Write the structure tokens for this entry.
Amino acid sequence: MSSRTLLGITMGTAGAILLGYCIYLDQKRRADPEYKRKLHDRRQHTEKAQDMKDDHNDNQLTECPMEEPLGEVSDHLALEHCFESEMKMGEQLICQGNIADGVTHFANAIMMCAHPLPVLQTIQESLPDFVFMPLLMKLTELQSNSSSTKDNSTTSIQEYA
């Protein structure tokens, strides 16, 4: 017998023994009387953790009430968090069929941007026209209402429409 054949037989035998040992340990683990209880506890723990995470995300979505004028928001991270929460809330509301409120949240998020045109272009690509057109109308309405914050980025929204 050549050394190559002997090596192949040895490796095959070692693999079969390893596979058999894994199967043996799996059977032993499943035969444990506490196995089902431990598995049940582990699944409940992960479900609780997921529920807590979902609740935390839901709470984050409602933390940005947009009561402060844009000129007073100085913390960049707070502004970014507020932008993200407004976008998520708008997306959720539109997915639920509440287009008017979803458009309002999208408009609030866009009004926070220093450069709203790239955001508008991205939103236009992802939203259908029957949602995007009310968004443009809402933006012009918000822009006319907030005459105190006139800069180049917000006047360009009217040019985009």
